Amino acid sequence: MAIRLFTLFYTAVTHCLLSIHSHFTPSTYIRMTSTYLYASTLTRTMAHHEAPHKDPRKMGIGRSIAVLTSGGDAQGMNAAVRATVRMGIYTGAKVYFVHEGYQGLVDGGDNIKLATWESVSMMLHLGGTVIGSARCMDFKEKWGRLKAACNLVKLGITNLCVIGGDGSLTGANQFRTEWSELLADLRKGAEEANRSSHLNIMGMVGSIDNDFCGTDMTIGTDSALHRIIEVVDAITTTAQSHQRTFILEVMGRHCGYLALVTALACGADWVFIPEMPPEENWEEHLCKRLIAQRGRGSRLNVIILAEGAQDRNQKPITCDQVKNLVSKKLGFDTRSTILGHVQRGGTPSAFDRILGSRMGVEAVMALLEATPETPACVVSLSGNMAVRLPLMECVQVTKDVTVAMTEGRFEDAVKLRGKSFQNNWDTYKMLAHVTPPEMKSNINIAIINVGAPCAGMNAAVRAAVRVGIIQGHQMLAVHDGFDGLANGQIEPIIWAQVGGWTGKGGSNLGTKREMYEELCIPMVVIPATVSNNVPGSDFSIGADTALNTITMTCDRIKQSAAGTKRRVFIIETMGGYCGYLATMAGLSSGADDAYIYEEPFHIRDLELNVEHLIEKMKTSVKRGLILRNSNANENYTTQFLYNLYSEEGKGTFDCRMNVLGHMQQGGTPSPFDRNFGTKMGSKSVLWLTNKLKECYRHGRIFANMPDSACVLGMKKRSLVFQPLASLKDDTDFEHRIPKTEWWLRLRPILKILAKYDTVEMDTSEVAAMEHVIKKTGLVKGDKM
């Protein structure tokens, strides 16, 4: 009889690790919950700078900055515009709107207007771009750029912030390169020309396609995924009812990111992307795949197709082509849907608001720190860090992707897209294009959910089950946490059982918080908690969904005061002692402050906040928003804050209080949480498979080494396995939070964008300029 090996895999994560030793002891207790943190939030990549400290509130005095949006609109652009304006004003600079993109720059006049603090209020929740965007043929001609230069010189503007795609940013770089020549042609007075001797350019990438190399995510991509997933979820319900096959076309003329992530997030049966066309005879393989899925009990098939999908001979693959193939060859009831511009519309997600805000602040700092020798830069996202990259290097790599596809070097095209894109592609191939082996292994893997439920848990379970089956293992489901393990609530779980789980919230397996005895078997803990308070990981499954729930709720609450005016809302979020949700929701909803445990506050701070709101009510913005995480202070409770603000604001504003409660744990998981959970579940099972081989000796398994019980966490851009014991020193056991929390660096931005001029940013360190070309090693001819 074959010996069966047994290992445990957690799809929930610790609120806090209460006891960590070199191996698990009988009293080890782990609180599991779920959260994801914004791959979406940015901290600065720092390089030490020897220059003396500069007061950021004086860096912009005597300088002028113009901001424009160009090309296709993207949700989150308004957040970037708002942050640019407010950060510029904070530094003492004048900031100008350029309406209608480069066309407004060429036409001048009323298209270039001085921005004020209040002029960017109530913009965060709006889609598109409030200052307008337009395709401009005039700017492509030198006479058009000459007119644009004249309009900037008249206003003394020498700093230009451009939010757009690679074409818009390339135009900005050309404008900067020609600046001296354009000034000479203007034949203006020497004084004006001298004041405008050079032009600084800073770019932010706004594109829902995520087609710009050098950044993990572009502004608008996450929101577009939200729109797509909303449609996919709606379509799958009708498809299941009628046992239909649906083909959905999403945007992405030259980049398959939206299609690829959508396929992962909804568990699609097939995806077509331009970077990696299907193999020859793909029609037969596709039909076999669909038949196999129906044979496993699936009542529907979902096929995702990027707008620019092509075969290996560069012939387009269309929705109608795939529909006709499936319906005629298989006889399946088939429907096709082209989503179109719905992907560009709607409210920006929490991630895009934070991304745009973070990039806008970084762009202003980069412009004010620039010298005439500084090349045109673009602010990019690398993991949870903001980095400044040479603009034209990024543009070159982006173009090289297209060249690689044209030349049939598809593997190179995928690599040039970056590590994140390649990881997504590898995970998709593993889950969708691998046939389970006929020879089974002698390994059993049990999956257990522990602690509070959160959105994204089921996606991790689904991925773990299917990857385990692909590896030949028997997968077991443990119901109701460690209680279920102790009481024998264990059953095999098969491929078909987890179909459709990516889109379901909560925990289908059930979850409880209980103690467990020592188990000398390999274990993996996946962080899954809305609080995002797990040591060893920047992000947790579930946090992104909770953050979006809080953000949308705050939008509605603020909107309710549109007619009333002069109203302040006090809102309590979850998080225990961890202030992540309150801080990030404060950034995404435009809060006036967010009280958290990690940043102690006293009665004088509360008094200053009240005074701040009283002054705010004298402006055209007559509403306020204050967030407080649940355990921010044992004495200054939410009720206390409500009473204080109500009393001190009498005659100026009134107050309302909201405790959001468990609604933050509910709902369908966001695209990020689905994708993140899928990749975490897949990677965990592969690690367990290798670890079991290491621990298997003489017919038995015994794993008591520190590295046999690990947390799988995201650190910057990588998923890393870390022994639980190694996290002890970085854990505040009493308050169930890590001692080091990266997102605390974003706290000053929250205050600055709320107009607290007493807050200072640390300018002793500046973001490092990184290079892209040498990292890829794939750019043909090494043109840069």
From TrEMBL:
Superkingdom, taxonomy of origin: Eukaryota
Reactions it catalyzes: beta-D-fructose 6-phosphate + ATP = beta-D-fructose 1,6-bisphosphate + ADP + H(+)
Cofactor: Mg(2+)
Phosphofructokinase domain segment(s): 65-366, 515-687
Keyword match Kinase: yes
A cellular component annotation (GO) from this entry: 6-phosphofructokinase complex
Signal peptide: 1-16
Listed SUPFAM superfamilies: Phosphofructokinase (SSF53784)
Any Pfam family matching the protein: PFK
GO MF annotations in UniProt: 6-phosphofructokinase activity; AMP binding; ATP binding; fructose-6-phosphate binding; identical protein binding; metal ion binding; monosaccharide binding
Protein's GO biological process: canonical glycolysis; fructose 1,6-bisphosphate metabolic process; fructose 6-phosphate metabolic process
The protein's annotated pathway: Carbohydrate degradation; glycolysis; D-glyceraldehyde 3-phosphate and glycerone phosphate from D-glucose: step 3/4
Enzyme Commission number(s) from the entry: 2.7.1.11
Keyword Metal-binding set for record: yes
Keywords: Allosteric enzyme, ATP-binding, Cytoplasm, Glycolysis, Kinase, Magnesium, Metal-binding, Nucleotide-binding, Signal, Transferase
Protein family (similarity comment): Belongs to the phosphofructokinase type A (PFKA) family. ATP-dependent PFK group I subfamily. Eukaryotic two domain clade "E" sub-subfamily.
Protein's UniProt name: 6-phosphofructokinase
